[in-house]
Amino acid sequence: MRLPYVSNPPSFDNEQDQAIVERVKQRRGDAGLLELDLSLLHSPPVADGWNSYLGSIRTKTTLSTSIREMAICRVAVLNKAWFEWEHHAPLLRACPEIREEYLECILKSPPHDAGASVLDEKHRAVMAYTDAMTIDVNVPGAVFEKLRTSFSDREVVEITATIAAYNCVSRFLVALDVGERNAQKGPLVS
After folding, report:
1. What gap in Å lies between CA 8 and CA 28, rounded to an integer?
2. Which domains are seen in the chain, by residue range?
């Protein structure tokens, strides 16, 4: 970690800042605060906005868990955000429709190789879209059209917001070496 984590449990003299801590703790539930939270809490207003936005991405969209977590895991792989992978790969693995080959494909496929021989059509479209958004930012029309034919307008917005949000998360994690994972060459949990 490039910055020290705030103390755990965090204790702020300012009531507003302490209320933010409580909101973050409430969203995390039994898991408790993560190293990510203890980094963000250096700036309680940033932590508060992050908590609200990522809480919505994680719990208030209409996306299936497998679609959401696949996009998050692929972003983690592309950005070498192993802390992110280690927190989300188990959630993806727990989805009944996810086979072990899907995880291997997400983890080992080169960029812009949408796993045609392994993934079903919807997951393949999400993986291609995730690769384009993460690597190139500008999404080719053909990639967008494949996503658009598999998902509703609302789902397209939610998939796009999820990929964008977790690119933000991964960049924060890697830039500050949250969880001390930058030296890793791959995931501890695959």
Report:
1. 14
2. 15-59 (no CATH), 65-176 (1.20.1290.10)
